[in-house]
Amino acid sequence: SCVAFTGPYAHLDKCPKCQQPRYDPLRAEMRRGSEKVARKQFYTMPLGQEIQALFRTAEGAESMNYLSSLVAEVLEQLEADGRLSSFDDVAHGSHFWGAYAAGQISQDDVVVALSIDGAQLYRNKKSDRWIYVWVVLSLGPDKRY
After folding, report:
1. Which of 141, 145, 139, 142 is nearest to 60 (CA)?
2. How far apart are CA 140 and CA 57, in angstroms?
3. What pLDDT shows up at residue 137?
4. Distance between CA atoms of residues 105 and 96, nearest Å
5. What letter does residue 13 receive in the DSSP assignment?
6. 58: which residues sit within 8 A by CB, 6+ positions away?
7. Residue 41: what pLDDT?
8. Confidence at 141, pLDDT banded by 50, 70, 90
9. Helix count (H) and strand count (E) of the chain?
10. pLDDT value of residue 34
């Protein structure tokens, strides 16, 4: 299907662009038409609510302060020595500091990374799956995964 069947498309039974059916006809036949099953579905967990939940407890809020503390340590070390003694987390990387210098990230921001990958499940078959995970980089490495 070319569209998501929500909003102005919620009432349609076939795609307005390619005319493919919204519901899987084979599954409907197997269930004798008792239940319509969408041909394609998308599941997600809203990121905003997940991040808000991390701040719900004092311990969680303290854990979310990891990156801000690390940024302060890195800045302090750079001012004192002019270089970093280790590169072991995201706040030691040039991409992070480029975004920080450009004002895209501030010390109080929640920083996340998106990791996404796809796979074809069966050889010579039109099936694929996409898996994605949000990594909350504001948490320490011991709590992010």
Report:
1. 139
2. 16
3. 94
4. 8
5. S
6. none
7. 81
8. very high
9. 6, 2
10. 65
Q: What is the pLDDT of residues 56-107, one digit of tens each?
A: 999 999 999 999 999 999 999 989 998 888 888 888 888 998 999 999 999 8
Helix, strand, coil shares of the chain as percentages rounded to 5? 35, 15, 50
Q: What is the C-alpha separation between 123 and 128, in angstroms, rounded?
A: 10
pLDDT, the chain, mean: 87
Please, what's the b/e burial string for 11-49 (b: 16 or more CB within 10 A of its CB; e: otherwise)?
eeeebeeeeeebeeeeeeeeeeeeeeeeeeeeeeeeeee
Both tokens of residue 50?
Answer: 């997940």
CB 126 within 8 A of CB 50: no
- The number of CA neighbours under 13 Å toward the Cβ of 35 is 4
Q: Do 9 and 3 meet the contact criterion of CB atoms below 8 Å apart?
A: yes
Which helix (H) or strand (E) segment is 136 a member of? strand 128-136
What's the predicted TM-score (pTM) here? Answer: 0.67
Residues whose CB falls within 8 Å of the CB of residue 121, separated by 6 or more in sequence, listed in order? 127, 128, 129
CA atoms of 43 and 46, how far apart (whole Å): 10
